[in-house]
Amino acid sequence: MARFITIILYLQKNNNTMYIRNIIKNLLIWKDSDARKPLIVRGARQVGKTSIIHQFGEMFPHYIYLNLEREKDANLFLNYSSINELVENLLFLNKVNLTHKNKTLIFIDEIQEVPKAINTLRYFYEEFPEIYVIAAGSLLETILSENISIPVGRVEFRLLRPVCFEEFLGAVDEKNALDEIQKIPIADFTHTKLMDLFRDFIFIGGMPEIVKNYAKNKNLHLLQPIYESLLVTYQNDFEKYAKNNSQAQILRHILTTMGSEFTNRIKFQNFGNSNYKSREAGEALKTLEKAMLINLVYPITNTTFPLISDFKKSPRLHFLDTGLLNKMAGIQKEILLAKTLDNVYFGKVVEHYVGQEILASNYSPMHQIRFWTKENKDSNAEVDYVIPYESLLIPVEVKSGAVGRLRSLHEFMDVAPHQIAVRIFSEKYKVENVKTIKGKPFKLINLPFYLSHKINEYIALNI
Predict the structure, then answer these.
(1) What is the CATH number of the domain that holds 58?
(2) Strand 104-109 and strand 294-297: pairing?
């Protein structure tokens, strides 16, 4: 109990946003685990990995920060004869007594700059398990080859994603709204205010630097240079992990056409009205997925476990962040002026947002989003998302229409071995007992957009 009081006092003292508090609490679970292994924190550039781990490091009596983009730090991992020598050198240079190694956190940032350092993690696990070790690298997956591999079984992972809506409320000091959204079920009187805040969030997005600036200045105009800076940063990274100049050009093409292709089911061949062949575009898209800038979302065709994606079918294309997408698509003004967000850019914006929220609900790299499809000669059906809940696969539709118009959802429920479905829409929370077109009864949980992060909690409430 004393340890948790200390944690709470620390978080209050440092006035962290909810986004940072959530991640630090997750890191504390790792810290206190008896089976702890060196931790690799993954995530795209600019999602706040370094800043958050710095704050986490303040909780340790001894904190050693290494950035392998700096020559003096990189040389430590290039020139050592044994893990004992490396550890002794690290502790000595940072004035840490060897007897205090079990109270020390070593953070190896930009570890991809010295691939040899990745293999070092296994030796920390095997010979110095008492030392807390965290590594991070935005482009880590893009440099792995046959000769460089992550030491499987000797490390564990956490994945950082952009800020979710609930965390956004904490960042912009909407304490009352945050308190209410955490109450399950939510009260009807909160709807108008939360929809207004949701409109702000879907415009702004969840990139930490942008959210931080908006929280400080409450000025949308001041955000524009930050959007542009982030996008330029991602473009500049292409030179680092493209195999050649030709692939770098394809990567740029994908980024510039993302605004018109997001949430669409795509073909690799001639992607974005180009002349690129399937293999060329496919390799480039998968490179961006490794860099965690995009998600290739594949369908499933079953309504029961196992949850297996069908990689033979066309995937949907999702980007890192909805706010950045709005900038790339040139639809920021449309979002500001729209009376309702249901149909902005053909409803693609809110559909993309829901996927981003589902991903943000879990720190595991294994956590993915999928959709369901049924394709045959007579008819095609497609449900926007399918999420696992205990032993069930729950369909999630992002819709503005009446219940009777959810044809694809009805087709899913007709063959599903359960009676629970979810609709995300712009109206207040409600639960309806309805029937499919064929007459099967099921319970439809209707959640407003701003509750997309809490789908599992509302399923638990109604199952």
Answers:
(1) 3.40.50.300
(2) unpaired
